[in-house]
Structures are given as structure tokens and as C-alpha cells.
């Protein structure tokens, strides 16, 4: 089994370049792709840009996910930030840090996961870097376009807006709870029985086309739900200076989540409110303008009211994050 | 002394956002800066993008450089890739990974170094990420514009072209050799006596405006010298399929480099040819079109000839890199 240290940086980057080039014939937006000092993307309008880093042992574990899932998930995490502005992914660059003794196959699988997920979002891997690091570290920087819509900020919510989410919440936290429970002695069959939830942790699949849809529908404010719904309404309330209230019963939960919660003796609402990493979108819309497929989960209130759940302060729902327990 | 773990990610990011905002009033290109899900940069043409990662202990050491220098150097490294395409830096995003016990002041100083250097290049820090990692890891992703010129690739060299460099080479490698010699028992006064070379290691200051100047002068091929001149001519020869020959005596060396080499008993030409991290530019121009300020160091030869120094195969000058000895 060859290691990255044996193969060397230049030969690895040539492999990455070849993997990116394999899928590259169809897209006229890329002037220069992977393999030069920098890539060049044709552009005729504003560029949306965001960067995110995932660290082995902290944000993912190789014994809980395949390398392809880990790579794809890093892309979802970064691309969701582009969608949260109302943008569509154009392309991205990737930096991979890993110990020299990392098997080449593992790094190629990480890269394959990133390339495949980028293409599922309609974008292209434009280049990257590979460096020696004590653990695997993935940094994905996404570039997106707005296709003529104005970017949707965190701060634009208005009193009376309806608050809505683009999909079901809590699945990633529930899936992580399954893996954690099995590690701590629960019946391993739990993982098979609740595999759709575990898959939501391993590779969340938000419909990021809802970002541009929300922007075209005139969304006043938007963000992606990476740290949990409550954490995001705190951010949105801070940014706008307005109250933001969530009706906890209205938050859509994935199938199986309530059954799993009953089995593990926890409150399913807590996963839906405080579980992160689903990367669905949260947006504030003028009443009556919420797009099809979005679920209304609350309202934007008055200046100075702050964030609440069912009319009460968010309290200990804040700050619980899916990775604080790993 | 407060640590990053005590202050927390959100409060740290608010400090970064404030540091970026302090300098942000003058630039109309940024629609949305640091602090939202993603930044938005106004754009009317192609976007040049490149990402680079630097890892503590591998690419820099806190006992050899200040945090400000380490941050600034990460920006130079990434921005040089934009210049090497003929582009100018518009802005960049930064990901910082660090152990929770890292002092807040150290991370703020790293960030300050990045912000200050970005502004020296005429760009803006657009946002970033902060994560927990076993060692300090900096990933800088730079975005640039081409201002109407065609991007200059690695592969465009033509037979008969003059090969030129934008500045003096070997200084970073010589500066590193000073620090390494002192660590291994040389007189500490060596560092003071050769401080201009040590500063070239700590913070190389290439004139990156030479990238767009070279592009406007019609450069056929260009790259930045990050891995040493010989490594770069190997890459350029590979990419074009042509011979690329360097006249070693013609490569400009910084003041003091020959004196230091004599004192340490090494060949100064070796630093100039094989020392990396200077981040000056290397380009191939049609004869007679080399811009003022560039030094002609060689020629582009015939198809199939490969890279040579003084007409001889590059041999062991290849693969020596400034960090292989740390």
C-alpha cells in the first residue's frame, strides 16, 4: 500500500488534476482549470466566496464515514454557504493536509468524493494544494455566482417576516448519536435500523438550489443551518436587532427521528432545534412569499426582542453542537 | 493570557471581522465583506483563484518568525500565484486552524499580518474560518482579476524565448540557512550580520505588480518561484515540451549572499538555483520584449530538450527544497 509521502506532492497533484480533468469537458465557464499556478474562471458578475475547514477527529472520523463521504461532506458544508447568499456553486479549490504515511488510496478517495459532490452541485474543482500535516485537514473554498439576484445577507430580516427552513432538521445530530451510542456499547444493529439517519450525518444532502430560489422569491435574510437552528436564529436576531421566534413543533423532522429519540431516551425536538450539520437553509420572507417546499417554522418579531423558542429565551439550547460530544 | 479555546470561535471571528472592517472603507469592489455566510466581490471579468496551506513546524516556526510575519508570508505565497497568471489580488479568504490552548494574541497577530499584507497588495480580507487543529495551519485562498489581459499559463513558452526573473533569488534559502546554522551552534551574531537575508526568509517581498506588467508585455509563460528556480524550469519544460536552459551566473543574487555562502562553506549559486520561497516571478518572453527590471537568466530551447543549467542536466539541483532540511 503506497503512502502519500512515497508518491510525493507533485505526483499526487498530477493525479488530482487528472481526476478533475476527467469531468471537465462540458463547462465553458472555466478558462484555466487545475494544474497551473492558479485557475481562471470566466465571470460576468459578482463572485460569492466562502472557505471552510474540516479536521479529522474533530469534524469527521475515518471509522465513521468513508473517505468519499468525508470529502463530499466538506464540499456540502462550503457550498451551503454559497447557497445561503442566494448563489450557485461555480467551482471550488481544495487544500488537503495529511500525514506522509497516509495511504494514497485514502487521499484519492477523499478527492474523488469532493470532485463528485462538486459536480452534483453543478460546479467544478478548479485546483488545490497538498501539504504535510499531523492529521487530515480539508479546506474547501467555494466560488459562486448570483445570476442577477441581489445577495441575501444575514441581517435583512424585517418585523413580521415568516421564518422558514428548506428541509428536515436534526437528522445529522441523530445519526451522530447512533454512531456514538454504538461506540459506547449500544447494540450495533441500531446503526442498520436507523441507517437513513446515519446517512444524514455521513453525507447531508440539502437541496442547495433552494438558495437561489429563495433569493428570487425575495428572501430578506438567509443562512445555512450548520450549527443548529437555535444557534442560527441567535445569529440572525443579533444581525438584524430583531426578535426571531421558532415554533418548535413546526420544525420538520426526518422519518425515524422520533422513534430513535424514544429508544435513546432523548427529546427529538432537541435534535431538530440544536443539532447542527444538516446544512439546510433558514430564511426570512415577507408573509405569503415563502417558496413551495419550504416549511414555516416561526416569525420575525420586534426590535430588541432577541431570539426565542416557543416564546421563551433559548437558554441551554444554545451552544450545544453536534461535535461537542465527540 | 487568554487562549482561543477560552474565547471561542464566534468571539474570535467577530474580532477578525472587526480587524478586516477597520481597513475596508475605501474599496468599492466588495459588496459584502467578512461576517456573513460568504463574501461577495463585485466582478466584471474572469476570476483568478489559488489556494495554499502553510503548517507550523513544516512551513514556518514561531521561534524563527513573528506571528505577523508568518501571516503575511502566507499571503505572499498565495498572492504570488495570482501574479503568476498576470493577475492582481482582489481579495482573499483565510482559514486558521489552531490548538485551543493557542494564545488569542498570537492568532490576532497572525490575522493582523495577513490583513496588513493583503492591503499592501491592494486586496481585501473577505472572510474566513477558525477551527480546532493539532497545530497551527493557515490556508489562504486568493482571488484576483486580470484587468483585460489574457492569463499567462505555465505551458506557453516558445522556442527562442528569453527566460527572465523579476528579482533576486536565493535570499530566502540563505536566511533559513542562517537560522538553521545558529540553531546548530553557529555564532548567534550571524543572524544580526546577515539580517537582510534572514528577513528575506521571514517575509519575502516580491514586487507582484510585475505579474500584470509581464502579462501586458506579452509574456508567453509565467510561474512564481516557490520551489526553487530549477524546480520551476523543470515544470515549465514539462508543460511546454521544450528545453529550458538557465545561465547560472546570470541569476541575480541578493547582497550579502556570496559572503554568507563563503562563511558557511557552501556554493551561493546553489541557493540561487535551488532555494525556494522567494516568490519572485519567472517568465518566458519573445526576444526583446523583457520588461524593465527583469533579469534575463536563460533561454527556451527546442522540443524534447528538457530542462538544463549551463547546458547540463539539472541533476541533484532538482528536489532540494528549503524545507527538506528543517
UniProtKB/TrEMBL annotation, chains A, B:
Substrate binds at residues 59, 277, 320. The gene is thiL. Keywords: ATP-binding, Kinase, Magnesium, Metal-binding, Nucleotide-binding, Thiamine biosynthesis, Transferase. Its EC number is 2.7.4.16. It comes from Gordonia alkaliphila. This is Thiamine-monophosphate kinase. Residues 302-326 are annotated as: Disordered. Residues 35-144 form the PurM-like N-terminal domain. It catalyses: thiamine phosphate + ATP = thiamine diphosphate + ADP. InterPro entries: PurM-like_C_dom, PurM-like_C_sf, PurM-like_N, PurM-like_N_sf, ThiL-like. Mg(2+) 1 binds at residues 51-52, 129. Mg(2+) 4 binds at residues 37, 50, 81.
Amino acid at each position: 500500500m503506497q503512502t502519500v509521502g512515497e508518491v510525493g506532492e507533485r505526483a499526487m497533484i498530477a493525479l488530482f488534476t487528472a481526476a478533475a480533468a476527467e469531468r471537465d469537458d462540458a463547462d465553458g465557464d472555466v478558462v484555466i482549470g487545475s494544474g497551473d499556478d492558479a485557475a481562471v474562471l470566466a465571470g460576468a458578475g459578482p463572485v460569492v466566496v466562502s472557505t471552510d475547514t474540516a479536521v479529522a477527529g474533530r469534524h469527521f472520523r475515518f471509522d465513521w464515514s468513508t473517505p468519499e463521504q468525508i470529502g463530499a461532506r466538506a464540499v456540502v458544508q462550503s457550498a451551503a454557504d454559497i447557497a445561503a447568499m442566494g448563489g450557485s456553486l461555480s467551482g471550488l479549490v481544495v487544500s488537503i493536509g495529511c500525514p506522509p504515511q497516509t495511504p494514497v488510496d485514502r487521499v484519492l478517495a477523499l478527492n474523488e468524493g469532493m470532485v463528485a459532490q462538486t459536480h452534483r452541485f453543478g460546479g467544478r474543482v478548479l485546483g488545490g494544494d497538498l501539504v504535510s500535516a499531523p492529521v487530515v485537514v480539508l479546506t474547501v473554498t467555494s466560488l459562486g455566482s448570483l445570476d442577477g439576484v441581489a445577495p441575501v445577507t444575514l441581517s435583512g430580516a424585517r418585523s413580521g417576516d415568516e421564518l422558514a427552513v428548506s428541509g428536515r432538521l436534526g437528522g445529522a445530530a441523530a445519526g451522530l448519536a447512533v454512531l456514538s451510542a454504538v461506540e459506547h456499547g449500544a447494540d450495533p444493529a441500531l446503526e442498520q435500523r436507523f441507517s437513513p439517519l446515519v446517512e444524514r450525518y455521513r453525507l447531508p444532502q440539502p437541496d442547495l438550489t433552494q438558495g437561489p430560489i429563495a433569493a428570487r422569491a425575495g428572501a430578506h435574510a438567509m443562512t445555512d443551518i450548520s450549527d443548529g437552528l437555535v444557534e442560527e436564529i441567535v445569529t440572525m436576531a443579533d444581525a438584524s436587532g430583531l426578535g426571531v421566534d421558532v415554533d418548535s413543533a413546526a420544525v420538520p423532522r426526518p422519518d425515524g427521528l422520533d422513534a430513535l429519540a424514544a429508544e435513546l431516551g432523548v427529546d427529538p425536538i432537541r435534535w431538530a432545534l440544536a443539532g447542527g450539520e444538516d446544512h439546510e437553509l433558514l430564511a426570512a420572507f415577507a408573509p405569503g412569499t415563502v417558496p413551495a417546499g419550504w416549511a414555516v417554522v416561526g416569525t420575525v418579531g420586534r426590535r430588541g426582542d432577541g431570539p426565542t423558542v416557543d416564546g421563551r429565551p433559548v437558554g441551554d439550547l444554545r451552544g450545544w453542537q453536534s461535535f461537542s460530544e465527540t
